[in-house]
Design brief:
Blueprint lengths: L3 E5 L4 E6 L4 H15 L2 H4 L3 H16 L1 H12 L3 H25 L3 E2 L5 E9 L2 E5 L7 H13 L3 E4 L5 H13 L7 E3 L4 H9 L3 E7 L2 H13 L3 E5 L5 E4 L5 H13 L11 E5 H16 L19 H16 L3 E4 L14 E4 L16 E7 L2 H9 L3 E2 L2 E4 L3 H10 L6 E2 L14 E2 L2 E2 L4 H4 L4 E9 L1
Parallel strand pairs: 5-6, 5-8, 6-7, 8-9, 10-11, 10-16, 11-14, 13-14, 16-17
Antiparallel strand pairs: 1-2, 3-4, 4-20, 9-19, 12-13, 15-18
Bound molecules: 1,4-dihydronicotinamide adenine dinucleotide and hexanoic acid.
Length: 457
Amino acid sequence: MSSYQSINPANNQLLKSWPSHDAAAVSQALETADRLFHSSWSKGDIAPRLQVLARLADLIESRVDELAAIASKEMGKLIGQSRGEVKICAQIARYYADHAAEILKPQPYPSELGEAWVEYHPIGVLVAVEPWNFPYYQLMRVLAPNLALGNPVLAKHANIVPHCADVFAKLVIEAGAPEGAWTNLFISSDQVAELIADDRVQGVALTGSERAGSAVAQQAGKYLKKSTLELGGNDVFVVLDDADIDEAVRQGAQARLSNCGQVCTAAKRFILHEKIASAFIDKFSAALKAARLGDPLDEQTTLGPLSSKDARDRLAKQVDEAVQNGATLLIGGKPVEGVGCYFQPTILTDIRPDNPAYYEEFFGPVAQIYVVGDDNAAVALANDSHYGLGGSVWTQDIARGRRLASAIETGMVFINSQSDTSAELPFGGVKRSGYGRELSDLGIKEFANQKLVVVAG
Ligand SMILES: NC(=O)C1=CN([C@@H]2O[C@H](COP(=O)(O)OP(=O)(O)OC[C@H]3O[C@@H](n4cnc5c(N)ncnc54)[C@H](O)[C@@H]3O)[C@@H](O)[C@H]2O)C=CC1
Ligand SMILES: CCCCCC(=O)O
C-alpha cells in the first residue's frame, strides 16, 4: 500500500492513494535534473528562468480557488487561509521574478589586491524535504529562489499532502520550466538518504520536525552537503503593561488558532505582564471559546481539524501529560467527539520548569500562559527555550519593544503584530529551530556558489 494518501481530516475519508516512485524513477529524475544543471538553462542567462517564475505567478493567481480547495480537503486548512497561502506563493514567485537579477548581480569588493567582485552561481541539484502545514508555501520557498538561481530541485513532500505536491509540480511545468527543474518524488526517508549521498546532489533544504531535521542534516553532514533547516518553534507572545489589550487579544487568538495552531511561528507561549494578565486571560479565553469548529470549506468555520488522526492523538497525549505534571487546564484540553480530527481550543497555565510541557511545542490550538513582573523576566522566560524561531512583543512604547526584540534569542521578532511572512523578508531561526534563511536576498544565496574573482592590480 502506498504511503502517500490524500485523506480528508474533516471526515477521515480517503480521497486517493498515490503510487510511490521506485528506484528506477528516482534514478531517472536525478539524471534529468543533473543534466539540466549542466545545460545552458542553469548556467546561462537568468532571464528565461525569471520569465518562468512570472508565468508561474500568473498561473497561480488564476487558479487560487481550485488550488485552495485541494489543500483544504487534503490537510484541513480553512478555505480562506488556503486562499491566503496560495496568494503568498504567487507573491514569492513574482518577487524573485522581479528582483533576482538585481540580487544576483556581481557584487564589487574593493581590495588592495586589485579589482575584486563576488559572482553568484548555482551549485547543482538540491533535495527539498517539506511538511504538510503549508503544502504549497513550503515548496515555493525552495522552488522560486533556486529556479531563479539555476539549481534543479528534487522534492519529497509530506506523505499526507500528495495532491498538493503533484499539482504544484504540474504548475511549474505548465509555467514553462523544463523537465528536471522541479521534480516531485513520492519516496521514503531511505530514498531521501540515498539521494543526499549521491555526488550529483549538492544540498538539502528541510522544513519539519527536529527528528526529521536531525536525520537529514546528519546525512548531509556525512556527505559534506550544504543544508538548511526550518524546524519547530515555541514562540512567545509578550504582552507588556502598556499594550493595546484588545488588539493583542484579537491577534493572539488568531496567532494561536490559525491553521489549527499548526504553524511553526504560531504564538505558543503567552507571556503576560502581571498588571494586565487577568484582563488579557479573561478576554483571550472568551476569544478561544468563541471559535466555530466545522468543515474547513465552510466560510463560517473559524477552527478546522488537525491535519491527521496521528497529529490529534499526539496533541491529546501531550496535553494530558502536561496536566499530570502539574499544569492547570483553564479551557478545553480534549479531542472533539465525532467525525474528524478536531481538538478543543485549550489554555494551560501554571506550567513550571520541571513540567516537560515547559519546553515542548504544542502543534495545535493549545496556548501556554505565563505571568511576569517586568521586562527582564519576560526576556529571561522567552529565552529559556530550546527553540529560537520567532516571537512578538506588544507595547505602545516602540523603543521598549525594540529593546525586547533585540534581547529575545530568535531569528524573527514582530512588534505589535503576530508573526507573519513575506517574500522580501528573511525567514528562519536559531537553536533547535534550525539554521539558514529562506526568502529575501538571504534565501536565494543559501545554495549559491558565492565566487570571488580578483583581477590582480
Ligand atoms: N517548521 C515547520 O514549519 C514545521 C514543523 N513541524 C514540526 O514537525 C512536527 C511533526 O510534523 P510532521 O509533518 O510529522 O513533520 P516531519 O518532520 O515528520 O515531516 C516533515 C518532512 O520530513 C519528512 N521526513 C520525516 N522524517 C524523515 C527522515 N528521517 N528522512 C527524510 N525525510 C523525513 C517527512 O516525510 C516530511 O516530508 C510538528 O509537530 C512540528 O513540531 C511540522 C510541520 C511544519
Ligand atoms: C505564514 C507563516 C508561515 C510559517 C511556515 C511554517 O510553519 O514553517
